[in-house]
Each structure stands twice: as structure tokens, then as C-alpha cells.
Specification:
By secondary structure, the protein is mainly alpha-helical. It contains nine helices and four strands. It is globular.
């Protein structure tokens, strides 16, 4: 199968499996690295494997349902096409929601704290996202506005799509995710239990809010013109900041 892609006028070989392969590689990297933190966090050996078995399937389902929900106009005429996840259309926020449901179920079964499991896996979620974003490259999607200024028509600022240049927003987010991962990875041993998710909300939410404003394929809330991911990012950043303000500011002063 061939499709116009990033190369402009030339046809490139379109490998639909690359999308899934890169997501799988991201998940594998997250699992392998997270296993090294099990003992430090007081969790049973190989709980990361159990976590993957619950989080990954429900995460994929959540990611797809979320995307289809906000793009139902695309799938209404052929609902079966909603199952073609290899063509793209997995929303990260939907994946996070679905994955959290899986994590919460496992926490209940294993009788461990949800916060402990989140602290274990959340830094590596950003690494998985950084890797998985390159699936958008092979699917020729998740790019931004057209770049008409010749001086800016170069990668990584822009990519060619069927002969025209567009902002490489997939790359911007991949790079931001990698930086966020490094921040979380280097600070994780200093966290108090429960700090992982709020920190993720901040280091992922801020760049995602900015980058989402550049994208040309955003999901919107009805006809409001409000980008769903920007709204969610703003909420997450506020909640994350509120957590740290309360835990290390207000609460500490009251307990002093």
C-alpha cells in the first residue's frame, strides 16, 4: 500500500504496522525501566508486568473511544472503521483515562495503594509517549499549521506533507515528552508518595497546552471552538500545581 507522506511529491512506502510497532516499543521501554523501581517503592516483584496487562489494553480502548467520540462525524457513515486503530486516531488523554481505570482495578486486586502504582509507572509513561509520537510520522499525521516562510522550511521545525511544509508538532511533543521524562526520572527518588501524577500533569500539561494550539487536527468540544486537549491540559496543570502548593506550602505551614 502506498500513500503520500512526509517526503513531498515522492511516494513513500506506508507501513501501517510502524504505528503499532512504535507504540509497542514505547510500552516495552516503560515496563523494563519501571521494573527496576519495584523494590524501592515497596512493591512486589513483577507487579509491573501485571500492571502492563491491565493498563495497556484498557489504555488502547480508552484512547480509541475518546478519539472516536470527538470525531464521530468521520466514523458515523462506516462505524466498523472505528476499529482500524492502525490508521491512527489514538488520543493520549483517552489512553490515560483508560489506563488509570486498569491501574485502579489492579490496585484493588493486589491491595496496594493507587498512588504507589502511579509513582512506579508514571515517569515512564512520558518516555513511551516520546517514542510513540513517532508513529505519527509514519502515518503522516499530527502536524501543525502550514509554513510558508522559506527560511523555516526545514526539519525539525517543519515537515513536508504532499509537497507543502507544515509545523512538525508531532516532533515538538516528542521532544517535550523526553524532557519531561528526564525531569521525572531524575527527581523520582525525592518524591513523597503520590507526587508522580501531579508532576506528570505539570510537565506534560504545559507543553501540550502550547503545542495543541499549533495543531491542525485538534479535537474540539462540539462547535465551541474549544480544543479538548488544551482544556484538559489547563485543568491538569492547575490541579498539579494545587497539589504541590497544598502539600509543600499550605499544609506544611499548618503542621509547623
Amino acid at each position: 500500500m502506498y500513500r503520500k507522506g512526509w517526503g513531498g511529491n515522492s511516494d513513500i512506502r506506508f507501513e501501517p504496522n510502524m504505528y503499532g510497532l512504535l507504540i509497542a516499543l514505547g510500552i516495552l521501554a516503560a515496563v523494563l525501566l519501571a521494573r527496576r523501581d519495584e523494590k524501592r517503592l515497596g512493591l512486589s516483584k513483577d507487579i509491573t508486568i501485571d500492571l502492563a496487562l491491565w493498563v495497556v489494553p484498557l489504555g488502547v480502548i480508552g484512547a480509541r473511544l475518546y478519539y472516536v467520540l470527538f470525531r464521530w462525524d468521520v466514523y458515523a457513515g462506516n462505524p466498523i472503521s472505528a476499529l482500524y486503530i492502525w490508521e491512527g486516531g489514538l488520543a493520549i488523554y483517552g489512553g490515560l483515562i483508560g489506563g488509570f481505570v486498569g491501574l485502579a482495578l489492579l490496585a484493588r486486586i493486589k491491595r496496594v495503594r493507587i498512588a504507589q502504582l502511579l509513582d512506579l509507572i508514571i515517569p515512564y509513561v512520558l518516555l513511551a509517549q516520546a517514542i510513540g509520537r513517532w508513529g505519527n510520522y509514519f502515518n503522516g499525521e499530527a502536524y501543525g499549521q502550514q509554513v510558508t516562510e522559506a527560511a523555516l522550511q526545514f526539519f525539525p521545525y517543519a515537515v513536508q506533507v504532499e509537497g507543502a511544509w507544515y509545523q512538525a508538532t508531532f516532533f515538538y511533543e516528542s521532544a517535550a515528552d523526553l524532557v519531561g521524562f528526564l525531569i521525572m526520572f531524575m527527581t523520582r527518588k525525592r518524591w513523597r508518595t503520590g507526587d508522580g501524577l501531579p508532576l506528570y500533569a505539570i510537565v506534560y500539561g504545559i507543553p501540550r497546552f502550547i503545542i495543541e494550539g499549533l495543531r491542525s487536527d485538534s479535537l474540539y468540544i462540539g462547535g465551541t471552538g474549544i480544543r479538548v486537549s488544551q482544556l484538559l491540559s489547563a485543568v491538569l496543570v492547575l490541579l498539579g500545581c494545587g497539589h504541590f502548593l497544598y502539600r509543600y506550602g499550605i499544609r506544611r505551614r499548618h503542621s509547623a
